Structures are given as structure tokens and as C-alpha cells.
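In practice, a research group might receive sequence data for several interacting partners and want a quick structural hypothesis before committing to experiments. The following worked case mirrors that situation: the sequences arrive first, and a predicted assembly follows.
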Amino acid sequence: MKRIRIMGLVALGTAASLALGACSESGGKKAEEAATAGGPPLTIAMITHSGPGDAFWDIVQKGAQAAAAKHNAKFLYSADPDGGKQAQLVQSAIDKKVDGIIVTFAKPDALKDVVGRAVAAKIPVVSINSGADVSAQYGAIAHFGQDETVAGEAAGRELAEIGAKKALCVIHEQGNVGLEDRCAGAKKTFGGEMQNLFVQGTNMPQVKSSITAKLQSDKSIDGVLTLNAAVAATAVDSVKESGSSAKVATFDLNKDLVRLMKEGSVQFAVDQQPYLQGYEAVDALWLYKTNGNTLGGGRPVLTGPAIVTKDAAAQIEAYANRGTR
Amino acid sequence: MGQAVADPSPKVAGGDERLAQRSLARRLLSRPELGALLGAVVVFVFFSVVADAFLRAESFSTVLYAASTFGIMAVGVSLLMIGGEFDLSAGVMVTTSALVAALVSYQLTLNLWVGVAISFVVTLALGFLNGLLYVKTGLPSFIITLATFFMLAGANLGVTKAVTGNVASDSVRDMDGFSSARAVFASQLDIGGVSVNITVFWWLLLVAVATWILLRTRIGNWIFAVGGAPASARAVGVPVDRTKIGLFMGVAFCAWLSGMHLVFAFATVQSGEGVGNEFFYIICAVIGGCLLTGGYGSAVGAAIGAFIFGMTNKGIVYAEWNPDWFKFFLGAMLLLATVVNLVVRRRMEQSR
Amino acid sequence: MSERVPLVRLDGVGKNYGNIIALRDVSLEVHAGEVACVLGDNGAGKSTLIKIIAGLHRHDTGTYEVQGEPVVFESPRDALDRGIATVYQDLAVVPLMPVWRNFFLGSEKRKAWGMLDVDFMRRTTKAELLRMGIDLRDVDQPIGTLSGGERQCVAIARAVYFGAKVLILDEPTAALGVKQAGVVLRYIVQARERGLGVVFITHNPHHAYPVGDRFLILNRGRVLGYHTKDEITREDLTSLMAGGAELQQLAHELESTSRTVAEELTE
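A structural hypothesis for the assembly, expressed as C-alpha cells:
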């Protein structure tokens, strides 16, 4: 089966080169067609601040890969949580003379210079996820992301709507500005009382025992807002274990969470649609390179918050199962 | 010279009773875990005063659970440290062990107990490999296990991604054997109306077994010897290499037990987990009186170290302190515990 | 005396490391109930000689007999099985471990289920040390808290207890003060009285002469002299050690003498 396919490809390739060989090598109708159909394959590099094995960034990559496949572009991914090292990765993308760079401004100052060099080298830059406020200023042509404060505000409103009066905001990575903004936003619109709880996201038993401890020490807590899907699933266990009646809501999605929402253990999820961030970024670079388009008019394009509730959960289950929601 | 040979024994029989008494008190003081025990009492009293919820039975059960998840690993790690070595791969090895069980069972649609058994073999093999590399190369275990740490962290992610297409294992919640394995590795037991996680009992059992091995078996003698003076141990016929390999496999066994808890408590395993935990295990062992240079320490001490760590970790939550300062308080508490430990040890050495 | 079969007999033994001749044509007999002293300055070949006897190295020339039987040892374990035990100066004990654990290290006494017979080992340790004149009030104290001489003695007592017929003592008095050296020398005499053959390596003729029955003096891998006690006086031995030496060696002697004095003063 596989061999036949390879033979087919070889045959196709031979036919194509024969056809090309017989024609003029420049100008003409062919050249015009090539330009509109995408021209030579683009190489697009994405450099994020993700740590290894992060489910969120996995989905971003899948979105970017899907867009790259559609446009016949080559997609390169690299990441480092350390700002300085992330900057080095951007520099190596510039050195490779890629056609476009997608970057996250989690640590804007560390990346300012190197992004400036990319712009100077006439490589278009698109920013995603974090850094909406500096994106245009640093010379990026577009930004796709979620305003964390806006998302937090949406979560706070929704949490109040499902009847919570005293809630917990579980931060799984201390010192992460985006996570702090979510909790701050939620606190603003929630109305009731909201406290932050720090847990060590790389150690699930510790996450579980910390949330349990908190729920035990304060029985009046009736809402738990977690900031990623894995912590949400653990929070559900903690609620059961501590005998609390708190309702659990979360940011981000995965298939386990969709199941939890269907069975009613998790009330809602605030999705910032990471797939969209990856997909749109590659798409925007392709449009810019092939048609000179820009999106957003210099302002960030928001990919979230999209609130997913029990009903919607059933609908997107299939997508979550394949790891794109 | 002749005078030296004729030198009469300075020990006088008349002082024997007094000496016996002093030796009893000193024997108590010379236990490596005494300082840690006092540190634990200080931390316990402290949180009992500042946090109302801390003394409730169910809160204490939560503290014990937190302590046990560190403590199980600290048992293996402390024995290894007494044997003079470090294992920096211990943290991610837990995740590896959990991933092996979850991925193998799910992908091949096997009963979960088969996955548990395969994970057991694979994890012990990893421990064996750590030990073998150490013995064969003679490089410091710090370097060897740093290398395996990186390799395992990479393999955890790489294999999971390749096999599942995602960065976490698929949920094994509804597979055969889940409920029985959960009963063994992650269930809640009712003890006098308070539900206690089974890991607490695994932990206590491991500490008891490790203590027995250390103090009452030949292997224990060898562990102290290979950590204290490997060349001397080799000179009197102790199988130094085999002992060290065994110690690395002991850590692997603990990693397997912790890994199985991870699988059956959470059903899915995040492939990036576990990084950084290796230092907490070492910290538990050190608080408990293990020397960083090897040859001295105890499993009970490491257990107390884990208990201090669990109390601090959860006590801060019960005390409802400003979470922005969480890590500061964590550090301060650990400093308090270790300083008490140090002061006690100094006193003890002076009294000698 | 020479009709008896010696426990250990070396005849014309030599050893080369590559093209360096470490030891050439050395002969030595060790009888039961005798102390054979091997004297020589640093680099004389003393450690090469004991490594051959202890089974760490194999000799290149000559013969090595144990109780009349020619042997070629593959490892120290082989030598141990023949009753030849070596006590190294710096490798004697594990300092942080209790005395009794050190005493039985590597040859632990066990009861059922692999349990250590702790009582037996404590009692035996105390008794064995007492037999040699060391009265410890507590065999549970870390052996590192004992004096250097006592530590050497524990190691020697251990070798004797576990059936050594020949004891090789590698510079047991080298790092010790006068009093501590005395403790060890007394113990060497005790071992001799119990019928063991002792090979006592030292560079100090004043330590060797009172306890030794035979003296082998080495210099730069060659035999400088091999005498029984009735053939040589302490003065001869001392001058033999110093006489063949160059000025540099003499300076070294003076230096070590002044060190001994300094140690005496600090005690």
C-alpha cells in the first residue's frame, strides 16, 4: 500500500518536472499562478515561552500545523520558559532566514531587541497569547490572544451566575502575570469574596492536598476557579474528598474536562481557543506574505473568552478527544 | 615505648554505673532523627497555634497525605543518601513509571494490573541502569542521574506525544482493574471516622521496612559502610557495587509506588510532571538528619523530614496567610526546622 | 626453626610495572608466632611487596609459597581464603559506624530471616577487644571517636577473629603519636603470642626492633639486608636504614623526628 503511494508520488514528480522543463522558466501565466497559489513554500517559526509537556501549547501547535499544512508551509516550533533563551531561539530563527516569526511576549523586555532585529531583517512578526499591549509597539503585524483580565471578568460573572458566593482562585504557577490577571479580573466582576490559592502545578498530589486543605479550613467556600484543565480535574477530587459542596469552574479545556462537564462535576470552562491562536497566526503570516494583508488594524484580535458549558461540551467532545480544543 | 605498652587501662571499674547512664542519654541524643523530631514538634505547635483548622482530624489526615507523597520517595532517597549517592532522576522517574503503566495498558487495551506489573519491571530496570552507569563509569552519581533526569523528562514527553498525540496519557478510569488497583494505590481508608489516604500506610510500612533493613540486616550494615568509607568497605569484602545498584533500585521501587498512586488517583498522567520534586525528596532526607556526604542518617528521620514538609506545605494554607508570600513562608519554616535540627546536633556533639 | 614450613615464603620475587623495576629478587619467610618486619623509606618497594602478598598484584619472577604450596593469587579474596589478611593504614574502618558494626563488617553474623545477631556481635566485639587489652565502655560509639591506635587495633582484632593466620600490617604506626604507636605495637605482640604470623611494614626501626623476629630492609626495590633478630642490633638496624641513605633521606629522617617531637608536645 505504502509502496504504491510512493511510486505514485515519484511518477507525479517526474511528470511535473517534465512539464516544467518543457516550459519557460520565468514570467508568463505560470509565474502569476504560482504567486497566487502560495509561491515557494514559506517557512514559519513559532517561538513560545512554554515549558515542556504543556497541554495548552500542544493545541496551539496543532492549530499552527493545520494552517501550515493548508498553505503548504513549513512550520518550526521551539520554546523556552526563560526569556533570555527564548530570545536566543528567535535569533536563530532570524539566522535561518525564515519567512515569518510567531512569538509570545510573556517576558516582553527580553524579546524587545531580538524582535526589532527580525523586523529590521524584513521578517514579519506575529505575536500570540501574551503581550497584547506591546505587540504593535515592537513592530508585530498582528496579535492573536485573549485579554486575561477580560477573560477573568467573564469567568467571575459566570461564577456569580451559577450561585457561588465565596470562591477560590487556584494559581498553579506562582509569579505568572497572566494567571494573576485572570484571578484579578474574576475578583472584579464576581461580587462575592474571592481568595487566591497557590499550588505547585508540577506535583498533582500536592495540588490535590492543598485544595483539600483549603476547603477543609474554610467550609463556606462554595466555588473553585482553576486556571488549567488538569488542575480542574484534581479540584473535583478535592471537593469530593473534603465533603465540600463547592462548584468547580475552570479556564482551558481538554477531553477529560469535557467528560467532567458532561457529568456535571465542572460547571463551565473559559476557553481561549489555543487552536485558533496557532492557526490564525500562521494564516496571518501567509496572508501578509502572499497578499500584504494585516488583521486587527494594529489592535489585538481576541480569540477568547469563549465560555463552554455543559450543553456545548457535548458538541465539542469530538474535537477535544482529538486534542484540538 | 616500653612505658606505652605497660600503660595501665584508664577505664576504672568503679565508674561503670555512671558511665552506663551517660551512655543511655547519649545514645538517645546520637540518633540522627532527634533534631528533626524537635523541629517537627516546633512546626506542629506553631501551626496549631496560628491555624484553627490545623488540629482537626480531617485536616491532619490531609497533612499526612501530603507528607506521604513526599515521604514514600524520601525513604528510597534517604537510603541512597546514606549509601553516599544522589538520584536527581527520582522526580521524573515517578512520572515515567506512571506513564508506562497508563500508556501500556491503554494502548494495548490490557488489564491495568498488567500495566502495573510492566511499569514495575521498567522502573526497576531504570534504577538498575542508574546504578550500573554509576558503577561502570565511576562518575559522580550527581552527573549520571542528572543525565538520566533529562533523558527521562524528554522521553516522558516524546513518547507520550508520539503514542497519544497529546501531552497527557489517556484516561484509564473506565478500564479493567482500575477500581481494584485504585483500592491498593489510591483509596481512602476510614480510620475512626476520618478518611485517611492509603499512601499514608504505604509510607509508614516502607519506613518500617527500611528501618529494619538499615539497623537489623547485613544489607543495612553495607549501606552505611559504602556511604561512609567505600574503599574500607571494599577492603573488608562488602560488595560495594551491588549495594549501590540495589540502592538505586530502591529509589526506583519508591518511584514505582508513587507513580502508581499518580495513575490511580488522577487517571490521566501529565507528561511534564515531576520535574523539581527530586530536590524536595533530598530536602526531606536532609532535614531528617541524613548527611549530604553519606554514611549517616535514618529512614525514620527522612519520614519526619517529610512530615515537617507536609505540615509546612499545608499549614500555610490552613493558616490562610497571604498566598503571595507562600514560598517565603515555606522557606522560613524549612529554615526553622533545619536550624532546630542543627542546634540539637551541635549540643549533642558538645555533650560528647 | 627453619625446619618448620613457613606460613609465607617468598623466594627471589620481582615485579615490574612496564619497564620500571619496582621490586627485584626479594626473599622473605613468615613463620607462625613470628613478626617479620619490612623496613624501607618511601619508594623502597614496601607497598609493592605487600600488594603481592595480599593478592592485589601478581609477581613477575620468583616463587610465592603459602604453607609450602606455590600460589598465584587472582584477588585479595584468594589470599583471605588462605588466611592472609591485610590491614591498611587508611582503609581500616568506616568512621561513622559503631565499633561492633565495623568489627563484623563484611562478615556479619545472622540469625533466622537474615536478621543480624546484634547481641552476639556486641558481646563478641567487646570480648575480643578486651582480650587484646582495649576496654570500651560502649561498643555502640562510632569508631571515629576512638583514637587512631585503637582504630588500628580494632581492625587487627577483626582480622584475627575471622581466622587470619598471617596478618599484613601496612604502616600501622605511621600516622600515630608515640603513645598510640605503643598501643599498636603491644597488639602486634599479642597477635604473635597467639601464634599468628605477622608482616609488619614500617619505616621506623625503633618501632620494628622491639617486636620483630626478622628484618627485611628494602631500598629502591632491592634488598639491602635480611636478618634475624640475633644477627642484628637495634643500632645496626638504625644505621642500616639511615646509612645507605643519601643526605636527602637523612633530612627526611630529621624532619620526621621533629614531627614526632611536635606530636609528643601536643599530647
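Before designing any experiment, note the following. Chain A has 13 helices and twelve strands. Chain A touches chain B through 38 residues (CB under 8 Å).
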